[in-house]
Amino acid sequence: MTIDMSAVQELLDKEAIRSLVSRYCNAADRHDHEKMRSLYWEDAIDDHGAMFNGPAMEFIDILPQIQAPMEVLHHNATSMNIAVEGDIAEGEIYLLALHKVQEADRSYDVLVGGRFFDRYSKRDGVWKYQHHAIVADWSFVNEPSHVTLSHPFLAGAHIGRPGPDDPSYRFFKLLHRGA
User: Fold this and answer.
1) 51 vs 63: CA distance, rounded Å
2) % the chain with pLDDT above 90
3) Where is the SnoaL-like domain positioned along the sequence (predicted)?
């Protein structure tokens, strides 16, 4: 049996990109801006529509103020359509993203069904985002918020939260937090 090394390399590259997408979701949900910064090339573009479209590092600089009112962020990447050609790749990544927002005078939930339109590049053997764009296909809004973490069903449960106080930062040793 002959092993097609180009097919093996394509599988390795696609798995590295799937891992990149998963780390992006984790960094967004935990408000881990140091980790988020490590996922993009310095010259990368981030396109969040009217919210921001420009250099990814500038987007990450303003993320703390964007995420400040978000008590819960929960990104779920689902179908991943990835094409690789050498050291470049493209991905159409389907996602569901829940946002629970608490502002001074109101609270609301926004569940977005959408896609990431991504371009990735591999430099020195490492895949990172070259261009990351968000496309919304639908949204579901509750105002006021219907998300609650105080229901008796959750009594005694570990509760996730943005930042280094999330239980994952104490639990995991192999899944690196931060950069």
Assistant:
1) 11
2) 79
3) 9-131
How many C-beta neighbours within 10 Å does residue 171 have? 9
pLDDT at 5 over 80: yes
* Count of C-beta atoms within a 10 Å radius of residue 20: 19
Evaluate the omega torsion of the peptide bond into residue 64 and state whether it is cis, within 30 degrees of 0: no
Say what the pLDDT of residue 52 is. Answer: 97
Strand residues in the chain grouped as ranges (E): 40-47, 53-55, 70-85, 88-102, 107-123, 126-142
d(CA 114, CA 65): 23
Here the tokens at position 139 are 């949204």
The identity of residue 147, as a single letter, is: V
Q: Nearest CA to 45 among 125, 119, 97?
A: 119
Report the alpha-carbon distance of residue 80 to residue 61 in Å, rounded: 28
Structural domains for the chain: 5-171 (3.10.450.50)
Q: Sheet with 40-47: list strands edge to edge.
A: 53-55, 40-47, 126-142, 107-123, 88-102, 70-85
What is the pLDDT averaged over residues 134-138? 97
**pTM (two decimals):** 0.93
With contact defined as beta carbons under 8 Å apart, do 111 and 96 qualify? Answer: yes
Start-to-end Cα distance in the chain: 41
